Amino acid sequence: MKILAFSDLHMARARAEDIVAASRVADLVIGAGDFCNMRKGIAEAMGLLDGIEKPLVLVPGNNESLEELQMAAPEGAHVLHGTSVEIVGVTIFGIGGGIPVTPFGAWSWDLTEDEAEEMLQRSFGADVLVSHSPPKGIADRTADGISVGSVAVRIAAEWVQPRLLLCGHIHDCWGEEGMIEETLVKNLGPTVNWFEV
């Protein structure tokens, strides 16, 4: 299966156009959160993805809530948060929000590590783990060099050993990747990223 994946679109029209164009040769498209900005414009952000005709999996970021994404997502899209879907024999588990809780204030849609850990217990058997937040220690450093990734996401990756862990959230690490045992971790960013599963 040829997977196109991206994160942190933040309503960037030109980036969305690139993703929609690339989707024509994908088998599956995955969006790992932060489609809009500060909980505003989610319907417009989803409109930028019109033209994606392949199966679409979306996970909320911290810039939109689960409910907001569910309301605005294109018909037929799979919105995952603590849930999974199987597409052509590939099981994809998603968890959204900022993990751990961000310093951004009340607008940010976040989870505590404990909340995330409880949800991630349902991820056993996943081939692909999509988390808006990166795992602790990989592609999770701020501009100041501080590691702000999720311990719960890292533990889940160690336990589940999915083939891929796709994330975003930390803009300073877009494009970075690493390994957790046999799992490839990639902080996607708002560009076209290709994976074969």
Described by strand count, sense and barrel closure, the largest sheet is: 6 strands, mixed
Q: What proportion of the residues is helical, as a percent range?
A: 10-25%
Gyration radius, rounded: 15 Å
- Percent strand equals 15-25%
* Level-1 CATH class name: Alpha Beta
Q: Compute the average pLDDT.
A: 97
Protein name: Serine/threonine protein phosphatase
Domain Calcineurin-like phosphoesterase: 1-172
Pfam families: Metallophos
What does this structure look like?
It comes from Sinisalibacter aestuarii. It holds the Pfam family Metallophos. The chain has 197 residues and is an alpha/beta fold. The strands form 2 sheets. Strands 5-6-7-8-10-9 form a 6-stranded mixed β-sheet, with helices on one face. A 5-stranded mixed β-sheet has the order 4-3-2-1-11. Strand 7, helix 5 and strand 8 form a beta-alpha-beta unit. The longest helix has 10 residues.
